[in-house]
Amino acid sequence: MTINLNELKARIAAADVYALAKRTPCQLAPKLSQEYGRNIWLKREDLQDVFSFKIRGAANRISSLTDAERAAGVCAASAGNHAQGMAAAAAYYNTKAVIFMPVTTPMIKVNAVAAAGAETRLVGDSYDDACAAAIEFAKESGAVFIHPFDELDVIAGQGTVGKEILEQMPRTPAAIYVCTGGGGLVSGVGTWVKAVSPSTKIIAVEPIGATTLKTSLEAGKPIPLNHVDGFADGVAVRLVGTNTLEIAKSVVDECVTVTNDEICAAVKDVFEATRTVVEPAGALALAGLIKQVREGTAPDGDCVVTISGANVNFDRIGHIVERAELGAGEEMMFAATIPEQAGAFLNFVRALGQRAVTEFNYRFAENDDDAHVLVGVKIRQSAERGDIIASMAEQNISVVDLSDDRLAKRHLRHMVGGRASKDIDEVLYRFEFPERPGALTDFLVNLDARWNISLFHYRNHGHSTGNVLCGFQIPKGDLAQLEESLAKTGYPMTCESDNIAYAYFLKA
């Protein structure tokens, strides 16, 4: 498929969005600009009435419906922001909207869609399940299905963000960093910007666990991801759009991927700059810019980042705060081995010096010559990790840096207790399951009852995916039979039996 970008630019120029969407400000962030050595501008789409840029695409698409189509109504699938945009636009244009949402969608988003006048239907555990149901409903009812990112009128509506940026900036920006999921925003922004200011780089930013655009660009065609990390749920898309990919091939200069911790750090940066708590996807573009600045690959000059949305659940904020300092390189987590004897603990604390301790975990183990402690300390920059390890080595204290260890950050720091029996083999697995009522029960029910669970840890983080750490005893060494049983749960799993943090604190 070939898309005429000049025609798409004309659609953007004619997009009918301002009956519902605001011309959001493009604000200079002085503190961030000073810290990172270039002017950083925030395009504040979190200030829309539905707290997201998605109102633009929904408004433009529904405004173009014929009278007959409006009478038939519209439908869509979404886990949040597109749903709210659709509901608001449908109400304004007096057409019925039925929105299909995964069962895992937080009720705050479901209620917001219902409050805007749309009918909500909860179907399946993922966007793909909800989308299939919405398409089937459209076939049966005659309602117009509106895709969240892969329709040209939706893309054109999102492209008004790029048009506004160039109109608002005092100088030609060197780069615009765009949060990217299905590609509607980056393809729309890129189409306008490359036509008007071809020297401005368009940089797509994706979570490292949801690189649908990067993967498809490298392959030259849409490639579905086998697994999608749902942390930044606003961009947790399994498959990029056919239209958006074709456009991105022409208008996207580069793709940047960032970790969840880097996203959390960017959420903190946005809060300190604006006093607004944005959703993870909303801070994604800033995380990409900061990463490139630190790596020395960011362009000089004015850089704009899209702050795409602020539909964050209150119960996620604690988790974001917890991971922000690790993501910003302002905290180090490590395991230290000290002699299990009087005075060793004092010696360890002295080796820490005047550093602020963020957490300290230790449990006495009888009959062990050594003790293992899990410690978090505040640091000013990542390079300071080496200084800590060196100061510990001077006191003959062995240290393993766990700052990038997922098991340690997500599970171990919240766990207490002893170790398993040395007489029975144990294996450890990490599972992901949809965060919906009954999912944890289903997980346990589907396990074969012959396996003894020797360790179990789960925390609700307020997003669509739950994470479980589970240990199993295999007295007869029948690992193959255990994994066959675990596969029946249907949930993605990763073996963690060789993880260094497990060996230090939990393994027999």
Strand content: 15-25%
Unreliable parts: none
- Average predicted local confidence, pLDDT: 88
Specify Rg, calculated over alpha carbons: 25 Å
Assign the CATH architecture of the largest domain. Answer: 3-Layer(aba) Sandwich
In DSSP terms (H or I, runs of 4 or more residues), the helix count works out at: 20
CATH topology of the largest domain: Rossmann fold
Number of domains: 4
Structural class: alpha/beta
**Shape category:** globular
Arrangement of strands in the largest sheet: 1-2-10-7-8-9
First CA to last CA: what distance?
58 Å
Number of strands: 18
Major beta-sheet overview: 6 strands, mixed
Helix content: 25-40%
| CATH class categorisation of the largest domain | Alpha Beta
Question: Which structural traits does this protein have?
Answer:
Alpha-Beta Plaits; six-stranded mixed sheet; 20 helices; alpha/beta; 4 domains; Rossmann fold; globular; 508 residues; four-stranded parallel sheet
Summarize the structure.
40% of the residues lie in helices and 20% in strands. The chain has 508 residues and is an alpha/beta fold.
Provide the fold topology:
Layout: H1 5-14, E1 26-28, H2 30-36, E2 40-44, H3 54-63, H4 67-72, E3 74-77, H5 81-92, E4 97-101, H6 107-115, E5 119-122, H7 127-141, E6 144-145, H8 152-168, E7 175-179, H9 184-196, E8 201-207, H10 212-219, H11 242-251, E9 254-258, H12 260-274, H13 284-295, E10 303-307, H14 317-327, E11 331-339, H15 344-352, E12 357-361, E13 370-378, H16 384-394, E14 398-401, H17 406-410, E15 426-434, H18 439-446, E16 452-459, E17 465-473, H19 479-487, E18 493-495, H20 500-505
Parallel strand pairs: 2-10, 3-4, 3-6, 4-5, 7-8, 7-10, 8-9
Antiparallel strand pairs: 1-2, 11-13, 11-14, 12-13, 15-17, 15-18, 16-17
Helix pairs in contact: 1-8, 1-9, 3-5, 3-8, 5-6, 8-9, 9-11, 12-13, 12-14
